[in-house]
Amino acid sequence: MTHIPLVDLKVQYAAIRPEIDAAIGAVLDSAEFINGPAIRQFEDEFAKSCGAKYAVGVASGTAALHLALLACNIGPGDEVITVAHTFAATAEAIVHAHATPVFVDIDPRTYTLNPDGLARAITPRTKGIIPVHLYGQPADMNAILSFASQYGLAVIEDAAQSHGARYRGQPVGALGQVACFSFYPGKNLGAYGDAGAVTTNDPLIAERVASLRDHGRSLGPDGRRAKYEHTAVGYGERLDTLQAAILRAKLPHLQAWNEARRHAARRYDQGLKGVDAVVTPWVSPWAEPVYHQYVIRTAQRDALAESLKRDGIATGIHYPIPLHRQGAFAKLGDPAVALPETEKAAAEILSLPMYPELSELQAQHILASVRRFFDRE
Ligand SMILES: *Cc1c(COP(=O)(O)O)cnc(C)c1O
């Protein structure tokens, strides 16, 4: 068996090449590379798929988080509660907004924000909470939302890994005040470059983000942005037309791709039954996950990863160093902060290859390799 990558973007492009090439060709022919019609069209279609009133395309998931925080009026002196078990961008965006990230621990089964930690983390400066729907599984939103409403906090979903995931039957993206998506190429819905979106039911937040992404340009009476009138100091964080056109072509496939990921996950779950040293992903009763990653945990993580590598199987660790242990963020917070479940997870988690096109044969090869490793142990 040839090498099995963690994610295979080539095989997906091969399957939808005519649609993608046509979408790219149409943008090239129109030469409307900035603010072309595909952007509004994609925004409308993506908002609908999330059950949100508005989607605003931006340049990346990081930009989505940054501009969403600003649109919620979070700024200097404010604190935002989030997790340390996430990609750096979650906390980076808080710092870009001149606020301070305050880390709480995760639920060791779901790897998402444990609402039990909120009461200890809140201070008079707390303005918002960013739960991360990590690996494609929604966080415990009811508990988070009820805490937030009790204290008047904004809830900003980091849905960068959860396009199409559902929480109690409702898609992520309109569960809190605002949600942030990344279309980084390897995400469940991926562009062919950097791209992101903010979704919300709040017209004020949508308008603020739409202005901020485009240099703070004001909205003219014709519904277009004024070219040289700036009501806010904004950013150059627009979604470009080519990426919007590519995302439009891919969006109709998202559900089937997510279903294929769930199918691959069930195959892994079945195949790892009886391997006592491995903990397979837990699915909360409220969650319909989309398996951005399939993450197992085991005390022999590093040795298992080495062994799989020798068998030509790539693995990943999402993420090996929690943010409160990173040089960039450690100095911002309380040095004594204890996040035992976060640290334990970082030492034991391993992401197996996961993408919609992962074949039965590849899965069997991976499962056989895992079982062989533990048989030898
Ligand atoms: C990918 C990701 C981001 C950042 O998105 P970019 O598009 O790479 O800027 C933020 N948060 C999480 C949880 C992510 O996985």
Report on the structure:
By secondary structure, the chain is α/β, with parallel strands linked by helices. The protein is 40% helix and 15% strand. The protein has a seven-stranded mixed beta sheet with strand order 1-9-8-5-4-2-3, with helices on both faces. Strands 7-6-12 form a three-stranded antiparallel beta sheet, with no helix packed on it. Helix 3 packs across helix 4 (89-96). The model has no long low-confidence stretch (mean pLDDT 96). Pyridoxal-5'-phosphate binds at residues 60-62, 86-87, 89-90, 132, 158, 160-161, 182, 184, 194, 196.
Helices and strands in order:
Layout: H1 9-30, H2 37-50, E1 54-58, H3 61-71, E2 79-83, H4 89-96, E3 100-104, H5 118-121, E4 126-129, H6 141-151, E5 154-158, E6 166-167, E7 170-171, E8 178-182, E9 196-200, H7 203-212, E10 217-219, E11 225-230, H8 241-250, H9 254-272, E12 287-288, E13 294-297, H10 301-310, H11 327-330, H12 340-348, E14 349-352, H13 360-376
Parallel strand pairs: 2-3, 2-4, 4-5, 5-8
Antiparallel strand pairs: 1-9, 6-7, 6-12, 8-9, 10-11, 13-14
Helix pairs in contact: 1-8, 2-8, 3-4, 3-7, 9-13
The structure holds pyridoxal-5'-phosphate.
The site of pyridoxal-5'-phosphate has 15 residues, from helix 3 and helix 4.
Spatially, the strands of the biggest sheet line up as 1-9-8-5-4-2-3
Q: Specify Rg, calculated over alpha carbons.
A: 21 Å
Low-confidence stretches: none
What's the total number of strands? 14
What would you say about this model in short?
Helices cover 40% and strands 15% of the residues. It has 377 residues and is of the alpha/beta class.
